[in-house]
Predict the 3D structure of the following.
Amino acid sequence: DAKTTQPNSMESNEEEPVHLPCNHSTISGTDYIHWYRQLPSQGPEYVIHGLTSNVNNRMASLAIAEDRKSSTLILHRATLRDAAVYYCIAPNSGGSNYKLTFGKGTLLTVNP
Amino acid sequence: EAGVAQSPRYKIIEKRQSVAFWCNPISGHATLYWYQQILGQGPKLLIQFQNNGVVDDSQLPKDRFSAERLKGVDSTLKIQPAKLEDSAVYLCASSPRGDRDREQYFGPGTRLTVT
């Protein structure tokens, strides 16, 4: 898997946008970038994934740098429910099995 | 659609005892994963099944851990005998296929405490 680097923690205010960065400088051209989050006492939850172009869904947006060495998860209006650990993962696309390797992620705190 | 189901949600055992966890994936999902999450860390993959065959068990401590997925649906993970360091949350996840562009769906996990 491509090594990913995320800040240990970030803080945001409710109803403000949040930009969560991730560096993945060793990513290959066919590796997808996945984001998951884990709310307290729950299993991880899929957020979004992308390959080259920016992606949007109902939960978030994913902005991928042109050289693909970094990406940013964007929460457009943070709510208290978005407080969680966010994991950026770039699984190796080669081989017969495809698995996620979780790091420690970024702990997002949302202030009311 | 129903999510990934796991039971029990909590389990407390003494070291050297055995324990088993059960997982029912989302209907129709061919790929099933078991993860171990130690407090303060991200989940670590223990074993991956594609239907009822093992795809990857490279990080499964095979001297004490075993897993099976009979008929390619439900799965059980067993620890025998348990050690103190096995205290963790055990997560089950499933995916339609183990493809690089498909998401995994996680269950709520089983919190195991070994005393």
Q: What stands out?
A: The CA atoms of residues 35 and 88 of chain A lie 5 Å apart. Strands of chain A lie at 9-13, 18-23, 33-38, 45-50, 55-56, 61-64, 70-75, 84-89, 106-111. DSSP finds no helices and nine strands in chain A. The interface with chain B takes residues 30-32, 34, 36, 42-46, 49, 51, 85, 87, 91, 93, 96-105 of chain A (CB under 8 Å).
